[in-house]
């Protein structure tokens, strides 16, 4: 009788405690879930694929502390048609890695083809329905009819703006589409039919300066986004000389500066992170730097990526030296196995 009375008292004490704990757990789960749904709808996605993306992002963020940073050499708009070019399949592999292993909840992108008007100010696209910018000339008419389904996110854009401001970077919002440094290569990386990205894309400008340290600091300012399951992709070219490209068109043999600069870039990017910023800045002082990049806007995105990488090592995933171009692709940080 005594044991029965004692157990009844214990049960009467524990029961309300358990009820409180279960109610708190349920409310927390609902709060997280409803917040995710609200974000999805605000991003103008269809419910079904977005719900899948939310579940995927939630499970991934629990096992991945930081998303990797990617540098892609994007080429011209013809890359979306050139399926036989070796870069096509390599971009597809990177895209598949991002959608199946990284599984970000959003992507923040920097392109060689968007420099802010001011050398000391950054612009962030806050548009939620991104048009495509056909900022290329002399291509067949069907190039200018291409589409790439995507959306932006005011919430993610505001998060980027706050991160930049808190790091002392002058920034303003703007309304803009995606330029050809992004959407043609994204059509290969994230084919809408076979490997859709299904998360918001927010583009951020470069500075209009050619200061490598300024762009490294730009990347460092938004590095914390990686801990929130937001992927950072920077788009440029490892070597990019259009003037010589026109002169050597049809001859894939790499020019001397293409080979030399491509390997120097690898050595600088893959050095220990404590030395990386200085080693990369020294690239711009090389005698062949202005041959490899007559202007530096296609090189500067990798400085942003390296800055965002923090203490994570850089790794060259693949390269192809072709005439006056290099197609090198890089990743900073590891991808955890599923």
UniProtKB/TrEMBL annotation:
Q: Which organism is it from?
A: Lepraria finkii
| Gene3D superfamilies to which the protein is assigned, alphabetical | LigB-like
Keywords tagged on the record: Metal-binding, Oxidoreductase, Zinc
PANTHER family documented for this protein: 4,5-DOPA DIOXYGENASE EXTRADIOL-LIKE PROTEIN
Q: What is the lineage of its organism?
A: Eukaryota, Fungi, Dikarya, Ascomycota, Pezizomycotina
Q: Which CDD domains match?
A: 45_DOPA_Dioxygenase
Q: Where is the Extradiol ring-cleavage dioxygenase class III enzyme subunit B domain?
A: 63-312
Into which family does the record put it? Belongs to the DODA-type extradiol aromatic ring-opening dioxygenase family.
**What cofactor does its activity depend on?**
Zn(2+)
**Name assigned to this protein:** Extradiol ring-cleavage dioxygenase class III enzyme subunit B domain-containing protein
**What Pfam families does the record point to?**
LigB
């Amino acid at each position: 009788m005594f044991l029965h009375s004692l157990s009844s008292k214990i049960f009467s004490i524990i029961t309300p405690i358990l009820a409180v704990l279960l109610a708190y757990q349920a409310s927390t789960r609902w709060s997280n879930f409803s917040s995710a749904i609200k974000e999805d709808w605000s991003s103008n996605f269809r419910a079904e694929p977005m719900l899948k993306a939310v579940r995927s992002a939630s499970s991934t963020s629990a096992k991945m502390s930081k998303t990797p940073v990617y540098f892609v050499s994007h080429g011209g708009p013809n890359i979306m048609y050139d399926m036989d070019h070796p870069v096509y399949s390599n971009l597809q592999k990177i895209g598949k890695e991002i959608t199946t292993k990284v599984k970000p909840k959003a992507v923040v992108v920097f392109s060689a083809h968007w420099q802010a008007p001011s050398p000391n100010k950054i612009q962030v696209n806050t548009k939620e329905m991104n048009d495509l910018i056909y900022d290329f000339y002399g291509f067949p008419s069907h190039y200018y009819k291409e589409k790439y389904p995507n959306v932006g996110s005011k919430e993610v854009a505001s998060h980027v703006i706050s991160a930049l401001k808190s790091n002392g970077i002058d920034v303003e919002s703007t309304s803009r589409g995606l330029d050809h440094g992004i959407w043609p290569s994204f059509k290969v990386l994230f084919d809408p039919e076979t490997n859709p990205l299904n998360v918001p894309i927010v583009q951020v400008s470069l500075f209009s300066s050619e200061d490598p340290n300024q762009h490294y600091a730009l990347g460092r300012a938004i590095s914390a986004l990686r801990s929130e399951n937001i992927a950072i992709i920077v788009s440029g070219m490892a070597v990019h000389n259009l003037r010589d490209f026109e002169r050597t068109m049809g001859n894939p043999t790499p020019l001397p500066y293409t080979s030399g600069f491509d390997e120097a870039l690898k050595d600088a990017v893959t050095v220990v992170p404590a030395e990386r910023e200085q080693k990369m800045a020294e690239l711009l002082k090389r005698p062949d730097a202005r041959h490899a990049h007559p202007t530096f806007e296609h090189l500067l995105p990798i400085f942003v990526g390296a800055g965002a990488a923090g203490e994570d090592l850089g790794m060259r995933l693949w390269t192809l030296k072709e005439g006056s171009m290099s197609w090198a692709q890089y990743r900073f940080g590891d991808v955890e196995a599923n």
